């Protein structure tokens, strides 16, 4: 696969307009997800894990009971790329 391209801050802010709930925090795409229960949160994480593995692109995340805190960036280029926006979109869709 070709190396993903690091997006500029202007590009990131423009693309964030289309992603409700997500923001730029400490150079990463950030969102806090909340679910009805631990089982729902963990079930969502399991679904996301399959998507992430198929993309070869993985979230930084942590889970406390029914909440999951997510940060996305592309370690390989030290910034945010289209891969992060694609994963963010899939995460939001799976949480609906
Ligand atoms: C070789 C492997 O595909 C790479 O190290 C992938 C794995 N998952 C990854 N996930 C994230 N978030 N960023 C990466 O740069 C990255 N690189």
Automatic annotation (TrEMBL):
CDD domains: PCD_DCoH_subfamily_b
Signal peptide start and end residues: none
EC numbers on record: 4.2.1.96
Gene3D superfamilies: Transcriptional coactivator/pterin dehydratase
Keywords on record: Lyase
Top-rank EC class of the record's enzyme: lyase
Reactions it catalyzes: (4aS,6R)-4a-hydroxy-L-erythro-5,6,7,8-tetrahydrobiopterin = (6R)-L-erythro-6,7-dihydrobiopterin + H2O
Cited PANTHER family: PTERIN-4-ALPHA-CARBINOLAMINE DEHYDRATASE
Annotated HAMAP family: Pterin_4_alpha (MF_00434)
Family named by the database record: Belongs to the pterin-4-alpha-carbinolamine dehydratase family.
Protein name in UniProt: Putative pterin-4-alpha-carbinolamine dehydratase
Record organism: Thermostichus vulcanus str. 'Rupite'
Native organism taxonomy: Bacteria, Bacillati, Cyanobacteriota, Cyanophyceae, Thermostichales
């Amino acid at each position: 696969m070709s190396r993903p391209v690091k997006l500029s801050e202007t590009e990131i802010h423009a693309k964030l307009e289309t992603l409700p709930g997500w923001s730029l925090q400490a150079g990463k795409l950030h969102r806090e997800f909340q679910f009805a229960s631990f089982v729902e949160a963990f079930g969502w994480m399991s679904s996301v894990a399959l998507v992430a593995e198929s993309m070869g692109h993985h979230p930084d995340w942590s889970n406390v009971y029914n909440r999951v805190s997510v940060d996305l960036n592309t370690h390989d280029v030290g910034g945010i790329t289209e891969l992060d926006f694609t994963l963010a979109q899939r995460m939001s869709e799976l949480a609906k």
